[in-house]
Amino acid sequence: MSIVLSGIMLAIKLMGTVAVIAAVWAVGIAWNDPRKILEMSEEIARGNEGSVPRPLLRHRAALILIFVGFAIFGFGGVYAGLSWIPNSWGVVDEDGEWSPYRYSIASLAGMTGAFLFARFMLDYCRRRLREQWRHEAERTGRN
Questions:
Q1: Least confident of 38-47, 83-92, 94-103
Q2: Average of pLDDT values for 52-78?
Q3: Cβ–Cβ under 8 Å, residues 82 and 102
Q4: Residue 44 pLDDT exceeds 60
Q5: What letter would DSSP give residue 79?
């Protein structure tokens, strides 16, 4: 039984590592090619401009991994930042287990931070793509 639990824990750690790598990758892609991020989130159509984009499973999986990576970054940072809160501060949850406030606050902040950062990244990509289009129009002399 302990071998199975060890395997499950290893799989969870590997998924967390992959999610963090995906988050770092997404920031790099957003910086270099904002259109790719917007295509993944299906805000702009792929291929024909008149076509309706269909959801792609690989894009959905990548976006979920990116979101989880942002949440891991946020949780870890807030949890470390709240190290001054003793673990004796907390409540007993409905399962009868002790839940420190530090863990609860870090979980909430990690999820909220992931939503906000993803929103910020999409806004950044939209703004950057508009700037690229404007510069292209100015360069070619079209307005």
A1: 38-47
A2: 77
A3: yes
A4: no
A5: H
Domain encompassing residue 68: 2-140
* Number of separate domains in the chain: 1
> 62, 40 in Cβ contact below 8 A?
yes
Bridge partners, 100 (sequence order): 90
111: tokens are: 């999820």
On whether the pTM is more than 0.85, the answer is: no
Residue 76 in 3-state DSSP?
A: helix
By C-alpha distance, which of 19, 17, 39 is closest to 29? 39
Nearest to 18 by CA among 56, 66, 79: 66
Q: Where are the alpha helices (H) located in 1-143, listed in sequence order?
A: 2-32, 34-40, 57-81, 101-140
Asked if 37 and 30 touch (Cβ cutoff 8 Å), the reply is yes
State the sign of the Cα–Cα–Cα–Cα dihedral 59, 65, 69, 75.
Answer: positive
Nearest to 29 by CA among 111, 131, 128, 112: 128
